[in-house]
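Pipeline run #58 for the internal structure catalog. This entry was flagged by the ingest filter as a single-chain record with no existing model, so it goes straight to prediction. Upstream metadata was stripped on purpose; only the residue string is passed forward. Reviewer on rotation: M.T. Logging verbosity set to normal.
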Amino acid sequence: MAIIASYFADRLLRSGRLSVTVTRKAFTTFAILTPAFLMVIQAFCGEDAVVTVVVFTASLFFNGAVTAGYLSNGLDIAPNFSGTIFGMANTLSSFGGWLSTKIVAILTNEQQTFAQWRYVFWILVGTYAAGALVYLLLGSGELQRWNSVEEEAVNGGSKEMQPLKKDEKEVLA
């Protein structure tokens, strides 16, 4: 899915049909709300092992579209700082992975029943939906002004910072 979604996102961007912001929001929404919907199915039908395997496989597959969504967004908004942005986002998401194991442990401690796991699936639905909503409302694909480091004369003319790339067009090419 990552390759397919990225291919279509690139085609949409090159054609000019959608802006970077709309493209990133569309692919992020698809990649996050599809697994949310699948977790609803899991909450109702997950006692069937075949349904569970299909739901989780499909969920992970469709979530791959984030590659054309928010995962590429750091390069859009600040190519000069995309590594830092990606590192910070990855650290935050790793914390979510750690926290989720604690929540599952609390909810299923000594009660490893499907009824207890239903709570986990509904938490996933809420988390996916909230993440999609926040990105839809606050996400942007526009180059941020803080990406460009201008040469500034500081302390009597010494230059403290230099741009990482001399030509902004080189970054976008």
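catalog note: Residues 1 and 136 are 21 Å apart (CA to CA).
catalog note: The two ends are 25 Å apart (CA to CA).
status: ready for reviewer M.T.
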